[in-house]
TrEMBL record:
One Gene Ontology molecular-function label: hydrolase activity
Keyword Signal: yes
Protein name: Polysaccharide deacetylase family protein
Leader sequence segment: 1-31
Pfam family membership, one: Polysacc_deac_1
Source taxon at top rank: Bacteria
TM helices/strands, residue ranges: none
Keyword Nucleus appears in the UniProt entry: no
EC code(s) of this entry: 3.-.-.-
CDD domains reported for this sequence: CE4_NodB_like_6s_7s (cd10917)
Entry keywords, A to Z: Hydrolase, Signal
Source organism per UniProt: Kitasatospora phosalacinea
Ranges for domain NodB homology: 113-292
Length: 303
């Protein structure tokens, strides 16, 4: 799905009157044909297979340290070595609760010079990308869409095994605000059930397609009822060779969340997923940022 520009204005993303038209023209995913309304079907209970699956808590840190990456590995992928990410904060700045309204965030409040990479959808399943992340040990967070990944759930398991968590991105990638509440819930709950069953851990984060409806009461209620404990947006989106910024000065800031997609040559004008990702890392490295693991900055739900 093709990115077409920026979403939101200012340091925080907000949606006012007429914003949906802006979203569809300038979102992190292309509009394309409007998907058919999904059926509102009950979600089958899925047995928890880990503490995270049972509690909705962020998984424990497990990603290898980047200082273990030899210079030759960076050179192989055409990237200058990134700064080493700092140790995870003892007091994680994103606070979640087990009940009530879920927070919406597009950046993490931190003084650490770090950014966070999130990759959406799951259309491109390039084995070289698995090789690249295995060698470079750059942490990512995956927001997967059931209808896009169901033909090859297995592809994402080696990436998960590297310590990269899998999160909820709906069943069929609809414009959420165009669906009635029951269908919004079905989109989130059905994806939640499928991803929990396939990957053994319940997603605790949700990203609405196109960022649409992120601040609406209907979507917030659906997220609460399906299990995720926060809605995650973004500050920058990666294109092919460069990023699109929400900030007017076109600079990264501490704690920014960056959006990318699992895409291949057909949507990257002939470029590969690994080339796009190398360009993304180069843009981050040029500004002196490290890439941190989003899970390490999110506290387990309380209350």
């Amino acid at each position: 799905m093709r990115q077409r520009g920026r979403v939101g204005r200012g340091r925080r993303i907000g949606y006012g009157a007429g914003a949906l038209a802006v979203l569809l023209a300038a979102s992190g995913c292309s509009g394309g044909p409007e998907p058919a309304d999904p059926r509102a079907v009950p979600v089958k209970p899925v047995a928890a297979t880990s503490p995270a699956a049972a509690t909705g808590a962020p998984p424990a840190p497990s990603a290898p340290a980047q200082d273990a990456v030899p210079d030759a590995a960076w050179a192989k992928w055409g990237v200058a070595p990134l700064p080493k990410a700092p140790a995870p904060p003892a007091d994680r700045p994103i606070k979640l609760t087990r009940t009530g309204a879920v927070p919406v965030f597009s950046e993490v409040p931190t003084t650490d010079k770090v950014v966070f990479i999130t990759i959406d959808d799951g259309a491109e399943k390039d084995p070289q990308f698995v090789e690249m992340l295995t060698e470079l040990k750059v942490p990512i967070t995956m927001f997967l869409t059931k209808d896009i990944v169901k033909d090859d759930y297995a592809y994402f398991k080696p990436l998960q095994a590297l310590g990269n968590s899998i999160q909820n991105h709906s069943v069929s990638h609809p414009v959420m605000s165009k669906l009635p509440p029951a269908q919004q819930k079905s989109q989130i709950c059905d994806d939640q059930a499928a991803l929990t069953e396939q990957y053994g851990t319940a997603p605790y984060l949700f990203r609405p397609p196109y960022g649409d409806g992120a601040h609406s009461a209907a979507l917030n209620t659906a997220v609460q009822e399906c299990g995720p404990r926060a809605v995650v947006l973004w500050r920058e989106s990666m294109q092919i060779h460069d990023m699109q910024y929400q900030a007017a000065d076109k600079k990264l800031r501490n704690g920014d969340i960056i959006l990318a997609h699992f895409r291949g040559p057909s949507e990257l004008k002939g470029e590969t997923m690994t080339r796009m990702f190398a360009e993304l890392l180069s843009r981050i490295q040029e500004q002196g940022f490290a890439v941190a693991r989003l899970d390490d900055y999110v506290a387990a739900p309380t209350g």
